Amino acid sequence: MKKFTQIICVLFTVASMSAQQEKGIMGYNNWLNNWTEFKPNKVEYGEANQILAGNISTNTKLLKRNVYVLQGNVYVTNNAVLTIEPGTLIIGDFETKGTLVVTKGASIVADGLETDPIVFTSNRSQKKAGDWGGIVILGDAPINKFGNVGSYNLDLDPTRTTYGGDNAAASSGVLRFVRIEFAGKKVKGAGSFNGLTLAGVGNKTILENIMVSYSAGDSFGFFGGDLNATKLVSYKSINDDYKFTQGVQCRLHNSLAVRSSYLSSNKDGSRCLEVASYEKKSETDFTKKQTLVVASNITMLNDSENINADIQSGLVKEAVYIAENASLEIKRSVISGFNPAVLLDSKIEINDANLKKIKFEEMYFNLCKGNIFTEFNSNNEDLESWYGSPLFFNVYSQSDNKETFIDIFNPKKPDFRLQLGKITASSGNR
Hints:
This is T9SS C-terminal target domain-containing protein. By secondary structure, the protein is mostly beta strands. It is about 10% helix and about 35% strand. It has one domain.
C-alpha cells in the first residue's frame, strides 16, 4: 500500500509540475542550459586556421579541430551537403562581411550537441550587431509569390538566390544546437541580412535549439515555405525576433524572444513576432496559401528593470504585429512588458471571419500597457471583449518580471520559465 501511495505522489507531482509550466517556454529542466551564451562579447573564441570562401560544390565536412573564417559570400551549390561537426567554430569575417548561403537543392547538416554546440560568430575583438552577414537557406517549398519563385538578393549573386517550388516536404538539412551571433550586415539601400533566413524551406528540415543573438536584422526570417521549429531563441535583436511573410506555413513551439528597450530599428520599430503575408501586394498570388503561424508555448519579454518608465519614455512598442491577410494562432504563451501586447494592422476589419484567423488562447499577458489594439485606434473595447471571454482562458497580470519568471537576470544561466503558481492568477484581473 505504501508503494502504491508513493507512485500516486510521484504522478501527482509530475502532473502538478506539468500544469504549472504550461504557459511560455516549458520543461522540467531549463533547456537553455549548456548550449546558449548570453554574453557572447565576453567569450574568447580563438583564431581561425582555415578559410571558407567562394563555392562549396561538393560534399564537404567542417571539423571541430579547426576554426574557420567565412570570407565574403560563400555559396553551397550543386546539391552539395555541407556537414559541420558538433563544437565547430565558424567566424564571420568583418572586412568582407562573410555570409553563408545554402542554395536551392543543397543542404546543411549542422547537428551540434547540448554540450558541444556549433557557433557562428564575429571575428572582431569588439563584437557588434551586423559584423557579418548571417546564414541564408533557400529551398523549394511553396511561397505565395506569382510563379512560385522568389529571389533573396541584397548583395548576393542573383543567379544563386532563387527559392520556392512545390515541395512542402523538402529537406534543407539540420540545424540543431547552433548559435548565430552578431550577424545582420547592412546593405546600402536594401536593408539588413537576418541572423538566419529560411526562404522556401520545407518541413523535413530539422530546426531545433537555435540561438540568434545581437542580430542587426531580424533574428529569424521566414519567407514562405512550410516549417516546424522548436526551442528557438532570439536575444537582443535590433530588428524583429521572428518575421513571417510570403505565405509561410509555420508551426513554432517552445521558443523565446528577449527584447531590450534600447535596441530597436529606426524604420518601423521592432517586434517579437511580425506576421505578414507579403511585402508587396502586387507580387502576391492570392490563390495560394497566405501566411499562417501556429505558435505554442512562446515567451516574449522585455527584460528592462523598469518597464513602466521605458513605456512612459516611448522606448517600448508592441510585442506582436499582425498584418492584413495573415493568420496567427497562438496558445499557452507569455507576453510581458510591451506597449501594447498586440497590434493589428489598421486594414484588418474587426469581424467574426477575421477574428477566427487571429486566435489568442490560454495566454498570460503581463505588465503591458493595453493588450490587443488595432493600429491608430485607441478604442479596443471590441477586442478586449472578444479575447477577454472566459472561453479563451486568457490571464492578465501586472507583476514585476523578477516575480514573473524564475531567474531572468542570472548572467550565466538565466531561466525564462514562468514562476510556479503564476498561471493560477485570476483571469478577471484585467
